[in-house]
């Protein structure tokens, strides 16, 4: 039997025991679809791992229970055993934060959680990540870029302080678009972790608009004593973008080839999306989003399987991008074809 199936089943047994005051081996066998002999082995394995399971006679039947208050350390956390175990397991799902300034804080938090578990419990739970894992998004900051607590940690702390207490900040920032350094006086509104990076959404009075600043491109952060009134922001700072941009949304329509239509249809690319299918299987996807670099990059990622229907300006821009990419290969591309026999 696959080891993953065993881990999942034993985890299900723990959850069943916690949610029920008492349960029989026959009940557990029926719920998990295995024999009572297998359930007995599972219960023995969980007991050996340190989980506080015990059996008792009641009305002529033998029941199994999970002692919720077996550990004082568990009482101190305020979590149930299953909740604490789930949190400990979920560390695998937040490993994508490892490339952020929160790396040390996340590790310390899980170290404290694991302190309320016995070594056997931790060994059991350490097998769960084999069943479910998280993968960092492409483009996340490298370890070299993110592992500078001497500079990055205090910088994030300053930005949090300024955001919480409405203090204006002077930023020295390297702009990606202009490829130059510039100083900004900003009013920090929110810090957002997205697409593997940390971003500051701030109001810039000089331009009378909200702008987004990547924390890794901040060269210096200086808090002032000047205060500001925070702006009304939507719950999602980048609600109208497929990336980490802001702007006015517009109606975008894209036609996808039948062979990729099902993949596109089954995913949520944006809350505004709507779909319709032609008789030949072509899928038309409409989105109300910003016409920005993130959108164009996403469309180009589908290659010849996607075609912009509207707006015309976006279709023209995509065609120009394709032509520019093509010019890097043709006609100078040297095809090294095998010699004819």
What is the CATH C-level name of the largest domain?
A: Mainly Alpha
Percentage of residues in helical conformation: 25-40%
CATH architecture of the largest domain: Orthogonal Bundle
- Into which percentage range does the β-strand content fall? 15-25%
**Secondary-structure element pattern, one letter each:** HHHEEHHHHHHEEEEEEHEEHEH
Structural class label: alpha+beta
CATH topology of the largest domain: Arc Repressor Mutant, subunit A
Number of helices: 12
What's the CATH H-level superfamily name of the largest domain?
A: Winged helix-like DNA-binding domain superfamily/Winged helix DNA-binding domain
Walk across the major sheet and give the strand order: 6-5-4-3-7
Task: List unreliable stretches of 5+ residues.
Answer: 142-150
Task: Give Rg in angstroms.
Answer: 27 Å
Oligomeric state: single chain
Structure description:
- It is a single chain.
- The protein folds into three domains: 1-135, Winged helix-like DNA-binding domain superfamily/Winged helix DNA-binding domain (Arc Repressor Mutant, subunit A, Orthogonal Bundle), CATH 1.10.10.10; 148-227, SH3 type barrels (Roll), CATH 2.30.30; 250-327.
- It is 37% helix and 24% strand.
- The protein is built from twelve helices and eleven strands.
- It has helices at residues 3-19, 25-32, 36-49, 72-77, 81-89, 103-114, 119-125, 143-146, 149-165, 258-265, 293-300, 312-327, and strands at residues 53-58, 61-66, 167-175, 180-194, 197-204, 209-214, 218-227, 250-256, 274-277, 283-289, 306-310.
- It has a five-stranded antiparallel β-sheet with strand order 6-5-4-3-7, covered by helices on one side. Strands 9-10-8-11 form a four-stranded antiparallel β-sheet.
- A hairpin with a 2-residue loop joins strand 1 (53-58) and strand 2.
- Helix 2 crosses helix 3 (36-49).
- The longest helix is centred in the N-terminal third of the chain and has 17 residues, at 3-19.
- It is extended.
């Amino acid at each position: 039997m696959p080891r993953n199936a065993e881990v999942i089943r034993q985890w299900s047994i723990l959850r069943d025991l916690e949610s029920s005051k008492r349960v029989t081996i026959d009940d557990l066998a029926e719920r998990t679809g295995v024999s009572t002999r297998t359930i007995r082995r599972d219960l023995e394995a969980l007991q050996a791992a340190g989980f506080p399971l015990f059996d008792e006679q009641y009305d002529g039947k033998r029941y199994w229970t999970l002692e919720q208050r077996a550990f004082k350390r568990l009482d101190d956390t305020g979590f149930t055993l299953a909740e604490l175990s789930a949190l400990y397991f979920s560390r695998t799902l937040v490993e994508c934060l490892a490339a952020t300034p929160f790396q040390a804080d996340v590790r310390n938090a899980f170290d404290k959680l694991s302190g309320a578990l016995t070594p056997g419990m931790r060994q059991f739970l350490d097998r769960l990540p084999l069943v479910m894992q998280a993968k960092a998004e492409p483009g996340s900051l490298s370890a070299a870029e993110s592992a500078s607590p001497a500079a990055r940690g205090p910088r994030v702390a300053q930005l949090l302080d300024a955001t919480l207490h409405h203090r204006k900040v002077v930023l020295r920032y390297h702009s990606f678009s202009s490829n130059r350094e510039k100083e900004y006086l900003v009013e920090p509104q929110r810090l957002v972790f997205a697409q593997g990076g940390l971003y500051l959404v701030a109001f810039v009075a000089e331009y009378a608009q909200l702008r987004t600043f990547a924390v890794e491109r901040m060269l210096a952060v200086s808090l002032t004593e000047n205060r500001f009134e925070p702006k009304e922001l939507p719950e999602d700072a980048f609600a109208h973008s497929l990336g980490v941009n802001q702007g006015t949304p517009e109606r975008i329509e894209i036609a996808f080839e039948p062979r990729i239509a099902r993949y596109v249809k089954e995913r949520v690319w944006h809350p505004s999306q709507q779909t319709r299918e032609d008789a030949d299987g072509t899928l038309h996807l409409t989105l109300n989003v910003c016409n920005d670099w993130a959108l164009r990059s996403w469309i180009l990622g589908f290659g010849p399987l996607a075609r912009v229907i509207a707006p015309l300006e976006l279709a023209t821009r995509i065609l120009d991008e394709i032509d520019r990419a093509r010019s890097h290969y043709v006609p100078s591309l040297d095809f090294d074809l095998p010699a004819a026999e």
